[in-house]
Every structure is written in C-alpha cells, then in structure tokens.
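Dear Dr. H.,

I hope your travels went smoothly. While you were away I took the liberty of generating a structure for the chain from your last submission, since the lab meeting agenda had it listed for discussion. I wanted you to have the full record in hand beforehand rather than looking at slides cold. The sequence, exactly as received, is reproduced here:
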Amino acid sequence: MDIKELIDTIRPVSDEALEMFLPKLTPRSVRAKELIIEQGKTSRSIYFICSGVFRNFTLNDGEEHTRWFALDGDIVASMFSFANGQPAIASVQALTDAEVYVMSIADAKELMDSSPEWSRWANRFFADGLYMLERRYLYIGVGDAMTRYKNLQSMRSFEMLQKVPLQYIASYLNMRPQTLSNIRKQLFKK
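The corresponding predicted structure, in token form, is as follows:
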C-alpha cells in the first residue's frame, strides 16, 4: 500500500502536510517472526504497514495471548511508550515477511505539536483505535466459540484468516486450537 493512501485511510491530509511527514519516514523490511515491539521494552517507533501481517500478543506466566492483528494499511505502536514513555505491555510480531515505514515517536509528536492538520489526523487515528477496541470486545469478547469465530469472519478478510496460523486466531478468540479447528470443519461442511 502506498504511504499517501495509508495516511488518507485515517484522514486525508494536504500535500503540504504530506511534505512535512515523508522525510521523517524510513522504509524497512521485516522478516516473518521478527518482533518490532517487545513487551517490557520502551518502543521508540511507529510502524506504517505497507504489506504483511502482524500480531500483538502478551506473554504472561509463559503463555502467549494474542490481542489483535494488523494488516496492510494499519499503523502499529505501543501506546504505553507513545503516550508516557513507558515499556510496552505487549509485543508485536510479523507473521509474514513485511514492508513497513518507520517513524520515531519523537518525530510524530513534533508533527502533532507543530501542525494542526497532523494533530487532527492523530486525534482521528486514536479515536479509530478506541473504536476498534470496543468493537473487538463487543463482537469477539462475548458469545460462544462459534459466535466469536463468525463475528471474526465478518470483521476480517478471508485472506487475513488464511495468512494467520490457527493457534494465533484461537488465542485471539480465547479458545483452544482444537475447538477452532472443529468450528472450521463444521462451517466447511455447510
């Protein structure tokens, strides 16, 4: 995905605003399984995903819990690090090889402070993030296992569901991989 297109999916910006933004980006290739944000470490960057699939997960008592997925066109950052300079409470891992643009949190804050247009863009980005969290808890956090999976199907693309390993989808839906496998078999038979 083109960076202008990615930015405009949140809120369109002027050519002048884009000219302020582009020099602050660094393109980067990310390999599958690579962590771009590590739980317990302060993240100093924001990632604009041009291609690839990522997951956000926590590690508690040796067990991983997938919290969300990010795809082409998504923007990934640790909000704990961004807002307060605190260590990330979760890791972000590439599930596929990916292409991203990276911006430092310091540069992002400078843009927001110096440009009302970028401040409005950031407000929209954060509001969209809160909406997605509410939607996740409303549709994925309730109901039986079948209902949660069907809700996920309606919210995410078939392509994404094919790219993400079963154990991560099961973790996201708060079920065992075997349960998810059985649900998929039932739906395939219909």
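Two observations you may find useful: The longest strand covers residues 63-70. The chain has a mean pLDDT of 92.

With kind regards,
E. W.
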